Automatic annotation (TrEMBL):
Domain Nose resistant-to-fluoxetine protein N-terminal: 37-181
Keywords: Membrane, Signal, Transmembrane, Transmembrane helix
Transmembrane helix in keyword set: yes
Protein name per its UniProtKB record: Nose resistant-to-fluoxetine protein N-terminal domain-containing protein
Transmembrane segments: 205-224, 270-290, 310-339, 351-372, 421-441, 448-469, 502-518, 530-552, 572-590, 639-660
Biased composition (Low complexity): 689-709
Lineage: Eukaryota, Metazoa, Ecdysozoa, Arthropoda, Hexapoda
InterPro entries documented for this protein: Acyl_transf_3_dom (IPR002656), Nose-resist-to-fluoxetine_N (IPR006621), O2_lipid_transport_reg (IPR052728)
Species: Hypothenemus hampei (Coffee berry borer)
Pfam families: Acyl_transf_3, NRF
Domain of life assignment: Eukaryota
Signal peptide start and end residues: 1-15
Region (Disordered): 679-709
Amino acid sequence: MKSFIICLVIIVVDANYFQNDFDLFPDLPLGVPNSENPVCREQSELFVDNLKNFTLWAHEIWDATAKASSGVLRGNIFQMGHFEQCLTAKAPFETQYCLATVTMYVGSLENPDRDPLAIDVDPNDSVLDKLYRYSDRTKQPRDTINIGWCVPASCTIKDLETSLTRHLQNDDTPLKRKNITFTASIKKEFCSRTSDKQFYTPADYSFGLLTLIMVVIVLASTIYDYKITNQTKSDEKVKKKTLTEKMILSFSARANFTEMAHKETTNSDLNILYGLRTISILVIIMDHRFGTFTSSALVNFNYVERQYRAPFACVVFHGDLLVDTFFLLSGLLVAYGLLSQFDKKMVNPAFIIFMRYIRLTPVYAFVIFYYATVFNYTGKGPLWKVIAGADSEDCRNNWWTNLLYVNNYVNPGHMCMTHAWYLPCDFHYFIIAVGICILIAKDKKLGICALLVTTMVSMIIPFILTVIYRRPAMLMFYPDFLTAPKTHPDFLLTYSKSHTRATPYFVGMFAGYIYYRLKGKNHHACKMKSFIIILLSVISIAASIFGGSVFYNPYHPYNPYESGAYAGFHRALWALGSVGLMYVASYGHGSLISNVLSWSPWVPLSKLQYGAYLIHMQFQLRSAASFMNPRYITYFDLISLSMSDMVLAFICALALYLTIEAPFRKIFKELLMPKRQPKSHKVEEVHTGNRVNHNNNNNVATGVQDSRL
């Protein structure tokens, strides 16, 4: 019996030794019993006493606290415990859940000869070489983890930091004998309480009321539309509608839904743009899903680290080129539409710019209103305040910079809707494009020279900035950017600024000028010319994409002039290659490309892409912010989630289109650009149930509306 007891003691001691002495990071303390805050100290002592007595509520609190770290060596830096159990524990006091940040300081490598850029570590080397913080940006730091801690809500951030720091200093582990030290910090944004339940503000109620009013108006307008359509079928004489009736019918869901299938241009050579815009937004949604997913808590971030060095990494991490496609198409449509209009009549440029503003802003303002109010109530989780809550807060504080289209210059570190940096760029380019189109209309040579100079300057600016500030050739989607995109130096310096992203837009204007000159002509490129253009275009696009792969190689030595050259010219290569393929699809032997891009279902989908662009990120941010535990990343999961994002985004975009985008576009167009009937003969206006037919075509509207994202 005595021997049995001795063996049992040895087993228990050995087990405790294994569990406590070989953890890479120390366990968190039981509450805050040494706090100088008397309430926090008393509640912590009550918690510990009940834990010893195996009281249920006390074990709910302890069970919700993360224990020994796991998966750190694979890049899992979040040990979350159980967020919801902590906040719903039936304790005699209020509880709070905090993510405590614990940092290990490893002074030097155990193996000084180890390659600091290598991903893999010799399995016989020290684990400390894996935990060492390297200067390699492609790696997730393993020396810092965030641990879920359930404690009394009476304990302040200072109480928690002080107690945890003291605990780390006094905790005796074998790692300390190797001169490894630990520090702790806790941010307010990483703490949540049951009492954090938000109460609706007047702004929240205002958004709900506005949404209800818009829905009621659309329903009433649609019912009225059905009524007068039935009357029109029974009456032989068609009555001309008053302005009030036109305003009411602008909100008809039936009419707006039917018109979605109508092409907005009579030039069949431009039909390929519907497919280009739709495919581009779908890929952008997928790219944003990859970014938001990897910015949150992952079990296997080491998988992402390997993707950075994969042969085709530039394809995965260079999706920003698809945004350049939108700049290209926008420039093309603006030049084509305005030059066609100026052939008929010059229009006040201030009026054109104002029309562009009111075309973009209503639905944009509505989405901003949503982000600033209701969005913050749509989820919860350990990272909610840091990801989704922070974005909602930025929209509450900086909404006005978005509506003035200066959000990429004014308070860009707290930009409302990170992806909205595109819109001020596009708006600024539009203003420049109007001036250049007026020059081309008055003096073709002078206007083309001005456009050429502007394009060259747009390429030189990123080159100069990259060289002067010694920045990378492009924005690298490494962990430091994924976790804090708005404040990243490259995002602020070159990625989101109008003066550094303009090249594709002005290349698009050249393309628009070409389409304008070929309009109505029987122009056709022969097979050989088409083949050469396709070959050169593919080479140009491939160079713009795969040329960036060298910069994802951590062994490649940095050269500011090489980086500057790529930063300045790779977007031009992408744009030129895209224009070449478009030219062949429109005028050459590119029937396959033309048939795919001109597919009729692209037409209605392309009209929803602006709303889809504005709204899709909220699904992805909500998903990333709601992670209750780290998730495993695979390409299959990313594609599946991306498809879900696409469906949800286009469903919401349809609702935005029918309630705001299409109605307000019609209202402003009717008020500011009313159709004028020819004086020589009377033109009868016929209501067909889904549209109003007129004989004249307004190219100002074409230039302003079709160039939207």
